[in-house]
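Example A, followed by Example B.
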Amino acid sequence: MSLEGRFEDGVVRVGGDARQRYHDSRGYGYPLAGNEIALAPVEAAHLLYRGDLAAVVDGDERLDFRSLLAREPGPDFGVRFLVYADLRERGFYLSPAAEPWIEDPPETEFAVFPRGKGPDDGEIAYALQVLGERTDVAGRDLEDGVLAVVDEESEITYFEVSRRDPSGSSATGLPDGCSADLLADRVVVWEPPLELYERTFYGQPLEGREYDEPTLQCSLLEATYLAERGALGLDPAAVRERGREVEGERFDRRLRVYAELRERNIVPKTGYKFGADFRTYADVESVEDLGHSELLVRVHPADHVFEPRDIALDVRLAHGVRKTMVFALVAEDDIEWWSVERLTP
């Protein structure tokens, strides 16, 4: 016999043998007195959708699945239901990330439990946030967990979002006062030591691959970094100012990220071919034995607001070239690093 629920104080209360039938065996809701349980509206909607709950009574109204869905009880109810139903179909139990459903909940919308586990087992596989494809995401609001984006055709894409702490072991030694000329949008370094290119991977040889003693063409980012550390015989302020003239306010922001990566023993090179600011190499021993870059880095100010469509584009491209997409959010005093990758739950 199917049970009925009733709306009361924002939840759907179900009596009878609801605790054994829905909570203990299938992870829905949280227990009340006796065998009664309380369901979140999205949980009740899923039970109605499956035909496991006969109706939800609200005052004089008796709601079926269609009627409850049309009411949209709560913000973004439609997209939240789609994600809830999808994960249930994939074999996961999940609950609203709130007490009393679970103790010490994450600051997100849903807590998704490992397969075979439920809300009483104390384990969370994913802290899940849900949004539609037209809902922007502020960089300051990023959290470790999973982002589920529902597009206009109700398809769902899952992204794993996590803080990153980039590090590497690339060579770091620099020469002193190499002769160099500042051009319109780059710097030419004359007769540098071979190690500047072959070991620490600064610039590109003017001679291409055939050289005995390379003449290096350096980007303004590379040249500013080198000049500020005494490796080039140029005024660092003049090189930095040229970068600002060429690139505007982005230059200082990108320079901070470039310098931070170098200080972490990572080699950043242009990511232009991949639509990013940088591609990075963590463990460069020599240019001759250079492997594939590991990360694509896109630089944004700390108050940047992401459009889900842009996240999808960046992550798809990075995945297609077997790299991880990392966003560097630059604040006045620090840089936050966030990696975003496609996830199949």
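Example B, a separate protein, is given below in the same form.
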Amino acid sequence: MGSYYAQDSYGAGIALSSGGLTVIGGGESPFNVINKIKDGTIDSTAIPSVNPGSEDMIVASDQSIYFLPNFQNNNSYNAMWRMTQGGYLQSYNGTSWVNVLPNNSGLVAQDAAVVHDSGNETISGTKSFSSTIIGSVSGNAGSATKLQTARSIGGVKFDGTANINLPGVNTQGNQNTTGNAATATKLQIARKVNGTPFDGTKDISINAANDSNIVHQSGNESIAGNKTFTGTVTAGGTQFTDSGWKSLTPSVGGTVKYRKVNGIVYVQCSSIPSLNNEGKTLVTLPAGYRPNNMIWTPWYAGNNIGNMTINSDGSLTKASTNNPGKDQVQISMFVSYPADN
């Protein structure tokens, strides 16, 4: 039903109402809507007004629906709105229609007061996040140079502004080191010691036979370099000892050298003056290098010959010469004998 009235001085008025569900619009769309409601084929989820007796109002149009507020006096188009066939809500800016809300978008996406999924935006105020923030963080949160609250590391305060020294770590002092670092019982990676795996959990035996750089008790091996033995060397059941050459200087000049190899003493004299030295003790050999009994041994010097004696007390004496008082020669001699005990 409709109602018309003209009592107002500003103009006439009209009211349209069906007393129940009212469907108005342009084209065939209003008829299609009301017919679908009547025959029950309307999508009740999209349009819940399935009862013709309801007092809802539906605006339906075959094309766009326009809204022209304040058009009476100045014919202003700047306040125009429309809902297009494609579902876009648009406003007119005086020259063209622009989307206020894109099709199927939410109101929030067009609100400048909210934070959006993309784009650069400045957020003011304190914001609390209940979940982890993923992405690049700038400002003091991303590049803090000082802790808000200083913490103690090994008893030393640390706020991040300067390096610290820990007593017992990089400076003199004691440090209580706990955890696996102080009580480790197993190596993370087992290592080999002379070919035997070792992880620290138990003792191992080192098999020297695996070392090619040492001399072994059996087998044929070549030994390079000079070796000095401080104890007795036994080879093939025979002990080998060598004192090395030692020197004594006779009172009359010349040189006496002596040496003991495997219990045999070797004595060598050289450049000892012979003239008028009969009966003189030239040198005295130390104990361990003396004969058990006196030894006579010849000496030679050109056409001159004579005898030397080495006595059991170690004294070495020129005993005789074939040219007494005239043999102006240098005596040379070499002799060996078993050493005394």
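On Example B: The longest helix spans residues 29-39.
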